[in-house]
């Protein structure tokens, strides 16, 4: 079985090279007459249009020339796609709507891409001639040299006719002639694919640079600006999520451990005063203080789990979600199959999505059951939390999920909430995985 596969790969590669050689050859050979036609029509139309522009006759002629160049450009983009092995898109052309027939007719004169098409129509003949010459010479050398043994007998051989082999000092015998010309054919045949491929790519990239260069540059600039905007939105979302988390942590500490510690200090102060007069009462106060200490430690542990859950760091997302579902006061149906460890930021965000959603379900939804699903796909992680509660949740600012939305955006993801009134709530977070 292994041998069959190993033999099939070179055969497919060989057939692929032959097909590419045919594509490149027809592209270069057909490009020569097309380049000649576009050169003649493009230069003639431009010159006549420019010379007759003073009497307005040249303007329609110039428009016609630009439209012809546009049509040839569309044809050329279709021709270079198989050579480059990729689809070459058509850039947008300027269009004028509702401003009069004359203005619409003359719109190509104000379109920069149309002038680039005309420039390509007039300059393409240069690489066309060079590529055509190389392809014809290499194909002729390969065919003539490799087939020479079959037609040597039909050629006239006389002392007055000097061949290249004689000029180089070889004897004029049939075996020498066949060996010499067959060697030339092997050289041209062995380098035929690479030479034809090189000139075809040179022509194709020359055409692509003129026909799509400006459009590609605009698209790259637009992509860079979009990436910058996304980065700015993620940064703003991260700052907002951090501020919300800090405010929540401050509130939780103030309402919980801080109040218990204040009471603990007061109880210890009273116990200190009563140790002499009422030791039994002092011991009771100390015992109560110890209880307060344990409860304070439990609250601090809960707060630390909210910041960086140890189980998430040590055992991964599945174990952390299992523990989270076990602590929820509403029954949780968890669907989180085992998976390899993910990026820590992705795991942390997924954990907090589920934690915040379950907290909201327990506090506000009056649900009887909640389903949690975590699915790994090719490009990221899909986290879904749905319940059968009262609904009415929203991502709008001022609602409880706004901070969670900021956290998901900071991770480069998207959070969606479907929560009709009396229809339950479905929260879905799509988190991308870093490449």
Keywords:
435 residues, 69% helix, elongated
Helix proportion range: 55-70%
- Overall pLDDT: 78
Q: Give the CA-based shape.
A: elongated
Residue windows where pLDDT falls under 50 for at least 5 positions: 1-12
Tell me the radius of gyration.
39 Å
Structural class: alpha+beta
Strand order in the sheet with the most strands: 1-2-3-5-4
Q: What is the overall number of helices?
A: 14
- How far the N terminus sits from the C terminus, by CA atoms, comes to 35 Å
Describe the sheet with the most strands: 5 strands, mixed
**Count of individual beta strands:** 5
Which series of helices and strands comes N to C? HHHHHHHHHHHHEHEEHEE
Strand content: 5-15%
Describe the structure.
The structure is a single chain. This protein has 435 residues and is of the alpha+beta class. It has 14 helices and five strands. It has helices at 2-51, 58-84, 101-105, 112-123, 125-146, 148-151, 164-167, 174-255, 257-274, 279-307, 310-315, 317-327, 344-365, 402-410, and strands at residues 332-335, 370-376, 380-387, 414-418, 425-432. It has a five-stranded mixed β-sheet, covered by helices on one side. The two termini are 35 Å apart. The model is unreliable at 1-12 (pLDDT under 50).
Strands, helices and their partners?
Layout: H1 2-51, H2 58-84, H3 101-105, H4 112-123, H5 125-146, H6 148-151, H7 164-167, H8 174-255, H9 257-274, H10 279-307, H11 310-315, H12 317-327, E1 332-335, H13 344-365, E2 370-376, E3 380-387, H14 402-410, E4 414-418, E5 425-432
Parallel strand pairs: 1-2
Antiparallel strand pairs: 2-3, 3-5, 4-5
């Amino acid at each position: 079985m292994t041998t069959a596969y190993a033999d099939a790969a070179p055969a497919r590669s060989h057939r692929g090279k032959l097909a590419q050689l045919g594509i490149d050859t027809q592209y270069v050979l057909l490009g020569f007459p097309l380049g000649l036609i576009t050169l003649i029509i493009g230069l003639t139309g431009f010159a006549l249009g420019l010379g007759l522009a003073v009497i307005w006759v040249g303007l329609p002629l110039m428009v016609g020339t630009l439209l012809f160049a546009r049509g040839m450009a569309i044809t050329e983009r279709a021709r270079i796609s198989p050579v480059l092995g990729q689809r070459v898109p058509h850039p947008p052309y300027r269009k004028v709507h509702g401003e009069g027939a004359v203005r619409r007719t003359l719109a190509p004169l104000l379109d920069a891409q149309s002038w680039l098409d005309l420039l390509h129509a007039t300059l393409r003949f240069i690489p066309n001639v060079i590529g055509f010459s190389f392809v014809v010479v290499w194909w002729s050398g390969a065919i003539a040299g490799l087939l020479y043994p079959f037609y040597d007998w039909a050629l006239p051989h006389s002392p007055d006719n000097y061949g290249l082999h004689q000029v180089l000092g070889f004897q004029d015998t049939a075996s020498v002639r066949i060996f010499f010309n067959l060697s030339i054919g092997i050289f041209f045949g062995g380098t035929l694919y690479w030479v034809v491929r090189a000139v075809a790519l040179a022509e194709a990239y020359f055409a692509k640079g003129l026909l799509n260069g400006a459009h590609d540059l605009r698209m790259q600039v637009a992509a860079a600006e979009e990436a910058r905007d996304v980065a700015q939105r993620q940064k703003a979302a991260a700052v907002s999520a951090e501020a919300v988390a800090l405010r929540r942590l401050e509130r939780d500490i103030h309402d919980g451990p801080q109040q218990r510690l204040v009471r603990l200090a007061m109880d210890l102060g009273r116990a200190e005063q009563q140790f002499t007069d009422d030791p039994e009462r002092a011991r009771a106060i100390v015992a109560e203080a110890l209880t307060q200490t344990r409860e304070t430690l439990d609250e601090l542990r809960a707060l630390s789990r909210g910041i960086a859950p140890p189980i998430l760091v040590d055992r991964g997302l599945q174990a952390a979600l299992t523990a989270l579902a076990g602590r929820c006061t509403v029954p949780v149906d968890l669907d989180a199959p085992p998976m390899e460890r993910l990026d820590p930021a992705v795991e942390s965000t997924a954990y907090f999505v589920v934690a915040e959603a379950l907290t909201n379900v327990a506090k506000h939804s009056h649900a009887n059951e909640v389903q949690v699903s975590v699915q790994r796909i090719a490009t990221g992680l899909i986290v879904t939390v749905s319940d059968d509660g009262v609904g009415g949740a929203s991502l709008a600012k001022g609602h409880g999920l706004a901070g969670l939305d900021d956290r998901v955006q900071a991770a480069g993801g998207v959070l969606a909430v479907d929560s009709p009134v009396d229809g339950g709530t479905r929260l879905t977070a799509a988190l991308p995985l870093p490449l």
